[in-house]
Amino acid sequence: MTAAALHHTTTTSNSSSGYTNGTIAAVPVTGDRSERPANVGILAMDIYFPKTCVDQAELEKHDGASTGKYTIGLGQTKMAFVDDREDIHSICLTVVSSLMEKYGVAYTDIGRLEVGTETIVDKSKSVKSVLMQLFAESGNYEVEGIDTTNACYGGTNALFNAINWIESSSWDGRLALVVAGDLAIYSSGSARPTGGAGAVAMLIGPNAPVTIEHGVRHTHMEHLYDFYKPDLSSEFPVVDGALSVASYLKSFDTCYEGYIKKLERKLAVPHANIDEVDYFVGHSPFTKQVQKAVAHISMIDFKRDPTNERYDAVRQAYLDVPVAQSYTDKVMERAFVAVSKEIYRTKAETALYAAKQIGNMYCGSVYGGLASLLSQVSSADLLGKRITLFSYGSGSAASMFSFVVVGDTSTIARHLSIVERLASRVDVPPVDYEKVMELREKTHQLRSYTPVGSLDNLFPGTFYLEHV
Amino acid sequence: MTAAALHHTTTTSNSSSGYTNGTIAAVPVTGDRSERPANVGILAMDIYFPKTCVDQAELEKHDGASTGKYTIGLGQTKMAFVDDREDIHSICLTVVSSLMEKYGVAYTDIGRLEVGTETIVDKSKSVKSVLMQLFAESGNYEVEGIDTTNACYGGTNALFNAINWIESSSWDGRLALVVAGDLAIYSSGSARPTGGAGAVAMLIGPNAPVTIEHGVRHTHMEHLYDFYKPDLSSEFPVVDGALSVASYLKSFDTCYEGYIKKLERKLAVPHANIDEVDYFVGHSPFTKQVQKAVAHISMIDFKRDPTNERYDAVRQAYLDVPVAQSYTDKVMERAFVAVSKEIYRTKAETALYAAKQIGNMYCGSVYGGLASLLSQVSSADLLGKRITLFSYGSGSAASMFSFVVVGDTSTIARHLSIVERLASRVDVPPVDYEKVMELREKTHQLRSYTPVGSLDNLFPGTFYLEHV
Q1: Rounded CA gap, A373 and A228, in Å?
Q2: Are residues B317 and B292 in the same domain?
Q3: Which of A127, A146, A229, A234 to mutate to test the interface with B (most CBs of B within 10 A)?
Q4: Residue numbers of the domain that contains A90
Q5: How many other β-carbons are positioned within 10 Å of the β-carbon of residue B456?
Q6: Is the pLDDT reported for residue A4 higher than 60?
Q7: A391 among annotated binding-site residues
Q8: Strand, helix or coil at B290?
Q9: B380 and B447 part of one domain
Q10: How does pLDDT run across A308-319, given as a tens digit for each residue?
Q11: Of chain B residues 246-275, which have a CB less than 8 A from chain A?
Q12: Into how many domains does chain B fold?
């Protein structure tokens, strides 16, 4: 793709949306910078997903798959997709401009912007540099940060980098933007229903309502080929599904055990377990995988404290069975899925709303989960709560970390409006969805190409490709 | 490229290299982490370049170019290149393992590793994840950071991120590795002699001899298509040479002016100028470009203080001429190259040693410059000196920032030994160099391929591809 001509559809004016915008502004740092700012975290958040989606139950029928294969087996309700009018540049432009406009943030107040993505349309030029178009009018060209990549983990690295910048002596008092998004597209076959598309933008700064928790983060990285994209001319990844599912869970086990031990030390409580976590947000390639992750929370908690009465039903059978056996032992996995059902229902399921309705957004997935939570749970209920995230990118890179809610999240919830916005999408019949996939495959990497997708299939305020 | 089988040649044992290794170890953070560690910067540094190079004067003859076109016009002496035995994975493995071994650093003491590169062989799996192979034996899988990309700027983003991590409350007391490297390969034609290959590794931590200077960094980023890689299946970039040279200089002007103003404020000196900078290290696509950058230092200094007697020779002609005119006015550029010759000779040229001998290492270029300086100037002469760097990545992303030398750099100099190591390379005749370029082009992205390059063309301790 060369210099693409990008336009955007008319934005719905915020003044007509029924509420007044608050504004969030940077506060210039004066005097001594030797002290770190307090409560660094998420000041604002927005999510973009395409207007078009395909119903997974319809897709099951169309594909001749057994009933429930996608809806229950994968735990997916709908899958978002884009036609040839959108690419990684346009969806990131859309989500950043939307956040800035909704929250009334000045482009001059941004000192850092990093993009986490694995949707690579140029091996050299970053998506971040494309986003600098949005800053041109303000005259602010001093914006640090570029792109960061390792499968679905890029957004997490970008988030950590943004927070670290604000806590470092290099911070200049301005705010940071983190963009995490992807187009998840698979070749036709069993992996295709695990696709999705979308991007999340987060505004990071001090005195945030949703603050990062220090001293508990645990990371696990290793050299693996579970999911990768060695064919640079194709949009499709190469996937070893079984290895990827197992690697996710293995990384999860390491991260959760490391995290909970650090939390135990920090809180000085004996046998810390999932009870210390109010909400769990897992990276969701498909939501069933997160249910498995929750089962692994129970496996680790049980291993760490076999006397916990929550595990009465599995104690006898699994007291001496190592967690690793569950990577291949489906009976064991089901037993712990059963015993962790209440944890899943009360702590994890709310965060999976967007993932069920959109599918995988790769880098955006876990942050779409956080957005789902902040959008649906009231600010009063969230106050004082710990939200624990697990980010996994194949290859592999994984981290578990947490936010604590210390302020009012109602503005974020109102601007996200995930349930309402997802309900306003257009269901596209599977046969038309497949035509769009064929179109993308045929026109991928074409030059001097004019996209043919209808502009009616875009939400107001969406950037789109006019010519490539 | 799929899971490549990587091996490495026998390493020359350090015990036979005539000096005893010091060791650098992480110090666990205990107690209150609210204070930032002091003197964060470069503890150790290593550079890797291929054993094979082509002489630019020979290449001029071979290409039928006018004498001096590459050697004087570009300012290049030799160009390093790899055959089909090496790729971005292998050169990064080589430079990291070399640094760790030379300086006696334990893999368990590393808490972060980020790779800056634009040599993309997989759109999803990071080079960082490949480097995790080196950590496997130590059992340390808790290493944050992935890859970061925007043309030649990735190493700088990785460096800033590493420093910020250490200064943040997320720091766990361990050290960070920054890897910056690329294979710079152009299609046959006028850009080909501006190629190169190599990687730099830096160990970042507190109490470093070469410390980052705070409060002076200036960054400029904008949306440009001066150099990019839209053809994902090719190793070659698309280059608008004139635009790229001008964009580099425009970014340079903005960054230098911003930087020198911040330095002026920090040092509380009137009319701060290049006299405050002891050494200048510029990103070098070819060294002539850095000489132009130095000319721009003079343009900005002259604009900021037209009474400076250093500019007597140009005052009358250029007093009212804006710096921007020089982007197209070659007479003006030459006038300022002439008037800045002494600045170039005393402050900039030493740092260009590796760039002249290797060519462009893209992300590694400016750090190869820093390595050249630390390798050639004695520790006593460096002590207390300010080293100012300019990093530019097309697309575009640029920063100017500085290090101050506060400790002994002799160990770093000894381990780098740039002059001696560059002198030990093998000059390959241009006709054979071209055959290698053809081989790379033909075999790029092949699968089930066994490289044919001779292992004699590798330094001891070099990782190489056995099978792809």
Answers
A1: 30
A2: yes
A3: A146
A4: 5-15+39-211+416-467
A5: 9
A6: no
A7: no
A8: helix
A9: no
A10: 999 999 999 999
A11: 254, 258
A12: 2
